[in-house]
Amino acid sequence: MADLLALDADRRALNITINSVGTELTRDDRRGLYPRLGHLHPDLHVELATCEDLEQVKGTLERCPAYHDVCRRLAYGESQALDKLLYEEEAKLCMRTFQGQFHYASFYAYLKLREQEIRNLMWISECVAQNQRNRIQDGIVPLWS
To answer: What pTM did the predictor assign?
Structure first.
């Protein structure tokens, strides 16, 4: 459960950083928005607050051992790919939760997997509506694989 919560907190911190690049948000304001837990807290939050582009965010993320695998698979300049890779990592952690003892993490993981299933369905429906059927596989996060 702690790994799931840490991943969710780190994804939020990364999204705050990426979305606030080029805005008037100061470093202190940005740090104030970050969650107070996760693998990136507190040391790498200081570095994330100073990032000015996606390459610096990736460089900071590479310093965290928990996300070394994600950074290895990430191509430069792709914030959408980072989001998808973090969702894939979350799906793996959620599926792994069902292999442990019975606890509340199973319910949390079930809900997170259902949310991902809804995101997958929304992606498919948007691709069909925009006549982009060849891009359907680009945005789907595989579940139960």
So the answer is: 0.77
